Queue: 2 jobs
Job 1
Amino acid sequence: ENFFSSKLSLKGVRALVTAGPTYEAIDPVRYIGNRSTGTMGIALAEELAARGADVYLVVGPSDVNIPCNIKTKKITTAREMYEASLKYISNTDIIIMAAAVSDYTPEKISKEKIKKESDQLSLTLTKTKDILSTAGKLKTEHQTLVGFALETTNERDNALQKLTKKNADLIVLNSLNDEGAGFGKGTNKIIIFDKKGNEYKFDKKPKKEVAKDIINTIIHYRNV
Ligand code: CTP
Ligand code: CA
């Protein structure tokens, strides 16, 4: 279903992409993380750059190679990702939040390594700031805001709710219910929903190809 041309230019367009996981420290040696590898977000940054866009990438701990034509800020925590992203938000035309940001962070980081003294251990976690929602609140007319939705149940409804609630223009539903797709896998199976009520369904394919589909859909959205 590659129904858009893949050569549509983004010259003169500035883009911000968030990618990868975040790590929230518990103590000097431990953290809360997630299985995101950063592959999808970095592929999006590459595809934007290939179309001529000026790309800023804010990326969490990831081993994926990042080409040098992409201005990159490496961060570790959700808080750092929020702060780094906020610096670029007002100066960009396309914002894609592909990062798997931790929703919660330990209320306090233990200065010393936590010892295994008791049989049970409870950590108090507090909610992190939502970067996509913040971008949605600050959004101006010329900006296109794109979020991801990672769901295991009620995929469609949850994705559409996120689109509205976070004031995004497009939301990419990443289906985890398909074997071989998602975190740590080479492929993704996506459906893109836009604010105008359109829905674009794609086959499972390598993340570099998925990135092309997403960028084409964004360009199409901006042009009509
Ligand atoms: N996101 C963000 N900042 C956060 C949490 C999420 O910018 N603190 C962004 C993600 O990058 C993604 C979108 O919000 O583009 C949706 O993330 P997701 O985890 O699917 O949804 P949440 O709103 O966090 O809700 P939940 O995890 O409960 O499904
Ligand atoms: Ca979340």
Note: The chain has one domain: 15-102+126-223.
Job 2
Amino acid sequence: TRSILLNSRPQGMPTQENFKFTEEDLPELQEGEVLLKALYVSVDPYMRGRMSDAKSYAAPYKVHEPIMGGIVAEVVESRNNQYKKGTIVEGRLPWQTYSISQGKGLNVIDPDLAPLGYYLGVLGMPGLTAYFGLLRIGDPKEGETVVVSGAAGAVGTVVGQIAKIKGCRVVGIAGSDDKMKYLQGKLGFDEAINYKTTDNIAAALEAACPDGVDIYFDNVGGEISDAVYPLLNNFARIAVCGQISLYNTTTQPTGPRVEPILLRTKSLMKGFIVGDYASDFRQGVKELAAWVKDGKLQYEQTITDGFDQIPDAFLGLFKGENTGKQLVHVADP
Ligand code: NDP
């Protein structure tokens, strides 16, 4: 099998040097084990946190061990009665072309229901993040204004569309003109702001949100968020989902104090991790799948080809190279 190990912990922006490719033979399958062939590998911003050893909600990756993440794989050999040869599964697996599993934590997926990559996106972790963050924390009501940052990514695209389903005015913030077109065209966002080319994001937001902001779904943090807070309405809700603009900073980030705004507007600001809602995942996937089936929820994937491209695809997340969910296609079933 070929593997990608964490070679060293990044300081600031990660680079290729932080990853190492190795090749080795796998041992023979033991009773209860399955041999898995990776088909689609998910690269996700949270992995940047696990590459560091700073305190976080997920344990750090170990140096010189394979990076782990969401993978869709095929059972190509089985000595486990639960998983027949040919079964397609999703699970937290090592970045390896082939891996051995005892079957724990694997979810069997139906390749006929949706494209395989969807189980790592809209019907997987990012889709559920959007679903529970928006519905449970944002609690959107018809006519309210929702701002979402990181709007053209795996989570953001789903947040904005669910907000539209709920009858909200939706304003997305993302980093390219193509993404603007995509958000306002195919996805039906009311307004989109390109933070890379707009000189005054605060003024652009004010123009895009004439009735203020009721819900802010924050995927990026930093200066983009600083521009949103002054527009909060009374009883606004802020779902703090991600802070990608700060993941590679090497100094302590500072910004304006937001507490006076939260106090004046009596707003709720809540951080969350998708796993907090694990007991309701089944219900969430069911509703997401129904929206996808009905054509109410569009879904974009940026698929890079080849196991060797996994580190580059991951690094591309920090340069905005993806629209929708970034995946790497490694093999076909
Ligand atoms: P995306 O698909 O949105 O990919 C990342 C995107 O972030 C890029 O395409 C880029 O788009 C944008 N970006 C990168 N660097 C910056 C920057 N410095 N400032 C502003 N935008 C930037 O990733 P996901 O949808 O998977 O994740 C989105 C966020 O949600 C992340 O912060 C992630 O950590 C978080 N998350 C949190 C979870 C939770 O449980 N709380 C679970 C899953 C994700 P652009 O072109 O717009 O710059």
Note: Residues 44-46, 125-126, 129, 150, 152-156, 174-176, 179, 219-220, 224, 241-245, 272-274, 317-318, 320, 322, 326 surround NDP (CB under 6 Å).
